[in-house]
Amino acid sequence: MTFINKLNAAWAANDSLLCVGLDPDMARLPPQFQSAPDGIYQFCTAIIDATADLACAFKPQIAYFAALAAEGQLERICAYLRDKYPHIPLILDSKRGDIGATAKQYACEAYDRYGADAVTVSPYMGSDSVEPYMEWRDRGVIVLCRTSNPGGSDLQFLDVNGRPLYQHVAQLVADKWNANGQCALVVGATFPEELAQVRAIVGDMPLLVPGIGAQGGDIVATVTAGKTGSGSGMMINSSRAILYATAAVGEDFAQAARRVASETRDAINAAR
Ligand SMILES: O=C(O)c1cc(=O)[nH]c(=O)n1[C@@H]1O[C@H](COP(=O)(O)O)[C@@H](O)[C@H]1O
Fold it and tell me: For the chain, which domains are there?
């Protein structure tokens, strides 16, 4: 099944636009996982089990694993997801970008090593740096467009022939790079105005929208700006707010994650 078909099915099956981000920060894991040799795997799979019926996608961020030399645990987490929840898209967030020959290795890493349905990539190096990903015709390529961080404006807002650069990226992906029909764009929830601009440019193309939760993006503004005509079209990511949701002393971390994921999904749905 293609990435887009899988995403459409997951949106419908779980009635959810929520993407659960897997960013395991060792210092913030419950103590029992900090001391276990496969603690990251145990923590992430517990979060996955607690939220799988509430999510339209899972998105592990590779840096959190690579920094701890825990790629083996990431491989096992991806295998667990593919085995137990094959209907939920797995997005590897690695934001790669390099010359074609090297990009091909990054594509192998995402699609073959980790078995991801989609991968995040940077458009900065241009068309030949994203073409290798398209050789996997059924897999998703999620291109950075208008990122959620304040510094994203440094380059993405540069005026290019009367239009900000991020709009050129959106147009380029919609018109030229999406030959397989498996592209999506990253647009931050922290910038609803730009989200609406991108939606107007790309039609129904899916958008990966990080920035609610820990980064403070407003859910109602995000959904209003980014939804398609049918009230869908987004993978709205939250990582830390779900992973480290435990508020009350004694509350189980997985139950807390489920509670916040459920509240977030419901808040998103209320605004669709
Ligand atoms: O591509 C991404 O996922 C991404 C793009 C972007 O513009 N901003 C952004 O925060 N992200 C990622 O989305 C996640 C956000 O995490 P929280 O802020 O904890 O919800 C992190 O894994 C970021 O690396």
Answer: 3-270 (3.20.20.70)
Pocket test for ligand 1, best of 93, 119, 242 (most atoms within 8 A of CB): 93
User: Region 156-162: what's the mean pLDDT?
Assistant: 97
User: For residues 205 and 234, is the Cβ–Cβ distance under 8 A?
Assistant: no
Residue of 84, 95, 104, 227 marked catalytic? 95
For residue 68, the surrounding DSSP H or E stretch is none
Q: Are β-strands 140-146 and 118-121 bridged in parallel, bridged antiparallel, or unpaired?
A: parallel
CA–centroid distance, 134 to ligand 1, in Å, is: 23
| Closest CA relative to residue 119, chosen from 52, 165, 60, 77 | 60
Would the pTM count as exceeding 0.95?
Answer: yes
Edge-first strand listing for the sheet containing 57-60: 57-60, 18-22, 234-238, 207-210, 183-187, 140-146, 118-121, 91-96
Q: What is the DSSP code (8-state) at residue 173?
A: I
